[in-house]
Design a protein that fits this description.
By secondary structure, the chain is of the alpha+beta class. It is built from 18 helices and ten strands. β2 and β3 form a beta hairpin. α1 runs antiparallel to α2, α3 crosses α14 and α12 runs parallel beside α17. The N terminus is likely disordered. It is a multi-pass membrane protein. It holds the Pfam family MacB_PCD. Keywords: Cell membrane, Membrane, Transmembrane, Transmembrane helix, Transport.
Length: about 425
């Protein structure tokens, strides 16, 4: 009671001096709003509601930032892995077999923004080892081209790519090597249904190859499927002597592939069919985008619920402080001053909660892989199974634009939540409030 009387006396002094009556957000308005935010025994329930509102805003903002960062990281990692090994554009022959793949690749590398053109031979086969037999995707490339693919050349765990063109060794993914039970120097058997033509029909082709290198891209789907061999060996194995399946193009900006299509078709100098990564993965990335947008909408509801808590808490505070509001009004405080006091009270909860949520979200995003490993260790479970989620680690990529959008949305909702209770406080009739006091 003594503190409230001090606040009232201060308000009275400023009202008499003409300061508080004309200047918005005067010091006494901030002081009274601060008093209302402090917990007193009689107002403990209101303080509990304010605490829940603060926690709701903080957790809502933090959750939005974390989930959006993980979704962005997941998309960027998948995009980088998929495009890093499959290329941004695929050039395939039309009418005539691609026997002139080297001259065509040189012409395509002369097209502006094309960084690399890599001819390849590709086919599916059954890959067998001491431990298992699995389906694999066999791709034949030249050593110089294989070294131009960073996801392969820079992720060699064991072995080497030296003299890759000269030998008959193959490079396989780490997960495939683990499942087959092989390591560098061991042999794997590749079985293809498209073998030699005999009077009895087509017989499957079976051949053994030593493992010369093991790579780990970090995407389980590729680490457990791809087998790279010299292009000349792949041509002989798949009965494609002197021919290539297609040419993979890597460009400077993957988002500009649509603008490069005409230049690529002209630069090839022969009839070709050109597709880009968006066409080949349209369903997959569209599903990711839809999931990301739905998650944003759902998690925004957490912030909205917290804003509703601010409304309920402020309405209860207005009812509890009806007598104090009436005394302020009789001493000269304007309706605007009363409204600003409660605006400051509610907005403070939202602003501090938003800032706390932002900091919490940043800390979690920066350490999300360590947190995942710790929780997995504590619970003895696999929280992010690479066989289900394709990636071997949990990524988080904070987008500045999205983060600013989340902060602005949370601050706007917090401010809007204070308008009605503040307006109710400003419209309070001093006579009615003091009639039964």
């Amino acid at each position: 009671m003594g503190r409230d009387m001090n606040a009232v006396e201060t308000a009275e002094d400023e009202a008499r001096s003409g300061k508080g009556a004309t200047r918005p957000f005067a010091p006494y308005e901030w002081m009274i709003a601060g008093r209302y935010l402090r917990s007193r025994r009689k107002e403990a329930f209101i303080s509990v509601i304010a605490g829940f509102s603060f926690a709701g805003i903080m957790l809502g903002v933090a959750t939005l930032i974390i989930v959006m960062a993980v979704m962005n990281g997941f998309r960027n990692e998948l995009l980088g892995k998929i495009l890093g090994i499959n290329g941004h554009m695929l050039v395939q022959p039309v009418d005539l077999a691609l026997t002139d793949y080297d001259p065509v690749a040189k012409r395509l590398e002369g097209v502006p923004e094309v960084m690399a053109a890599i001819p390849f031979v590709e086919g599916q086969a059954l890959v067998s080892g001491p431990a298992a037999s699995l389906g694999g995707l066999v791709r034949g490339v030249q050593e110089r081209d294989l070294r131009r693919i960073p996801l392969i050349a820079e992720t060699i765990q064991r072995g080497t790519l030296d003299n890759f063109d000269d030998g008959t060794g193959v490079a396989i993914g780490s997960r495939l090597a683990q499942n087959l039970g092989v390591t560098v120097g061991d042999h794997i058997t590749i079985l293809s249904p498209n073998g030699s033509v005999t009077p009895m029909g087509i017989t499957p082709r079976r051949k053994s190859y030593p493992v010369s290198a093991i790579f780990e891209i970090g995407m389980s789907e590729y680490d457990g499927t791809f087998v790279f061999m010299p292009i000349t060996e792949a041509q002989a194995y798949f009965n494609m002597e002197g021919r290539a399946t297609g040419i993979e193009l890597y460009v400077a900006d993957p988002d500009r592939v649509g603008l490069l299509r005409a230049a690529v078709e002209e630069g090839a100098g022969r009839p070709t069919f050109v597709t880009d990564w968006r066409q080949r993965n349209v369903t997959f990335f569209s599903a990711l985008e839809v999931e990301r947008n739905v998650m944003f909408i759902i998690l925004t509801l957490i912030v909205i619920v917290a804003a509703l808590n601010i409304i309920s808490g402020l309405i209860m505070l207005v009812k509890d402080k009806g007598r104090d509001i009436a005394i302020l009004r009789t001493m000269g405080a304007t309706r605007g001053a009363v409204m600003r006091i409660f605006l400051i009270t509610g907005a403070s909860i939202g602003c501090v909660g938003t800032i706390a949520g932002f900091l919490l979200g940043l800390v979690v995003c920066w350490n999300i892989e360590s947190i995942r490993q710790f929780i997995s260790w504590m619970t003895a479970t696999e929280l992010f199974d690479p066989t289900l989620y394709f990636l071997s680690r949990l990524p988080a990529d904070i987008d500045n634009g999205e983060t600013v959008t989340v902060l602005i949305m949370a601050l706007a909702l917090s401010l809007l939540a204070t308008l009605y209770p503040a307006w109710r406080a400003a419209r309070l009739d001093p006579v009615e409030a003091l009639r039964y006091e």
